[in-house]
């Protein structure tokens, strides 16, 4: 797994807690590696070792995060067509329903239209 994914820490906040610039500044100050902000919220990426301290520093500034966890982040993503994407999303949905599966990580990208269709 580790040749296609990096083990990272992630701290997530709702978009409303701060502007993208304010979150970026605070995350850098806290020792984060990378920040992604969009209308869905802020994702702050850390090394696995620094997750706890970055999460604590950001929580002190912005309140409790939506999520703070270790995960596998893909090094590269692969765009797939809607037909393949639909099959992959159905497979992931089936895996997710299994009590034996704890986490699922993938490195494919699908169109926004397909995501809307599948979540409807």
In short:
It is built from four helices and six strands, in the order βαββαββαβα.
Could you characterize the architecture of this molecule?
By secondary structure, the protein is an alpha+beta fold. Helix content is 39%, strand content 27%. The protein is built from four helices and six strands, in the order E-H-E-E-H-E-E-H-E-H. The strands form two sheets. A four-stranded antiparallel sheet has the order 2-3-1-4, covered by helices on one side. It has a two-stranded parallel ribbon with strand order 5-6. Strand 2 and strand 3 (41-46) form a beta hairpin. 16% of the residues are buried.
What labels would you give this structure?
single chain; 120 residues; alpha+beta; two-stranded parallel sheet; globular
Topology diagram in text:
Layout: E1 5-13, H1 20-30, E2 34-38, E3 41-46, H2 51-62, E4 67-74, E5 78-79, H3 82-97, E6 108-109, H4 112-119
Parallel strand pairs: 5-6
Antiparallel strand pairs: 1-3, 1-4, 2-3
